[in-house]
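Hi all, posting the design record for the shared folder.

TITLE: backbone redesign
STEP: 1 of 1
STRUCTURE INPUT:
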């Protein structure tokens, strides 16, 4: 078993938030509140101004925004249009919508395209503070696979992307020896050390009911029934070896959006989930 989880940070990084609202008083009020609470808050009063700030921040070392909080109804560029522009420039930057009006089909489309949530004005400040505090939670992954070459390659790629990574390559008995906090994700091979993938999923679920599990396998046909059963237990997705790293990163981004949305009271369905 090899573990690299828990690298200490030398300093606490303050969350940086961009508030976008053509109502200048509203933008100032929110900016002042969040600054008093210890966050780096800035205001923009149009979509165009917001995009200039996002672009400028992206050029700074470590200066990127952690969240954009935008009003829906603004002249020239709506909050939904701003979200699309932000997503094109910085796909991982979370965007939260706020409005004093009822949601329409355009807003629903924005949420489907990756917006985190829609919040009603006046905002619940405590809810927003909880959300901001979740933005810098450590991104940790445990890879459970007895293919050591696969583990090393994936470990190195994910670590280079900023994740803290642990590996379990020796024994299924090691699975519960690695700490798995809620903000962690498990990548589980469906054939590991001769132990049933379903058995491992159930074991993990018994101890960590909310832990997202991404299934991986090189045996699409042979493992079809077990994969479907595993997904029903509550796992997030299945990737088939060999897969492109972009496929995994897309799944991880979906898990992250789901986690952030849940903080704001919105439930995002898993891929393929009905209802």
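Okay, here is what came back for every position:
SEQUENCE:
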């Amino acid at each position: 078993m090899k573990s690299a989880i828990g690298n200490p940070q030398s300093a606490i990084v303050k969350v940086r938030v961009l508030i976008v609202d053509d109502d200048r008083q509203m933008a100032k009020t929110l900016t002042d509140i969040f600054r008093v609470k210890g966050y780096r808050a800035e205001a923009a009063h149009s979509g165009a101004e917001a995009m200039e700030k996002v672009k400028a921040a992206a050029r700074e070392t470590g200066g990127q925004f952690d969240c954009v909080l935008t009003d829906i109804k603004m002249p020239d560029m709506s909050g939904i249009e701003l979200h699309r522009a932000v997503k094109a420039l910085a796909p991982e930057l979370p965007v939260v919508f706020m409005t004093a009006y009822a949601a329409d089909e355009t807003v629903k489309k924005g949420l489907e395209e990756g917006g985190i949530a829609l919040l009603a004005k006046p905002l619940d400040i405590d809810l927003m503070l909880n959300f901001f505090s979740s933005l810098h939670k450590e991104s940790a992954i445990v890879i459970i696979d007895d293919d050591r070459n696969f583990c090393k390659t994936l470990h190195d790629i994910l670590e280079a992307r900023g994740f803290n990574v642990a590996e379990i390559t020796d024994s299924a008995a090691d699975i519960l020896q690695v700490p798995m906090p809620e903000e962690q994700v498990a990548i589980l091979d469906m054939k590991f050390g001769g132990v049933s993938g379903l058995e491992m999923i159930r074991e993990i679920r018994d101890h960590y009911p909310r832990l997202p599990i991404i299934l991986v396998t090189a045996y699409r046909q042979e493992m079809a029934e077990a994969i479907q059963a595993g997904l029903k237990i509550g796992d997030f997705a299945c990737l088939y070896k060999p897969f492109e790293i972009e496929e995994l990163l897309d799944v991880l981004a979906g898990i992250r959006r789901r986690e952030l949305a849940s903080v704001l009271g919105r439930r995002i369905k898993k891929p393929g989930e009905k209802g």
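COMMENT: The longest helix spans residues 245-263.
Let me know if anyone wants the other runs.
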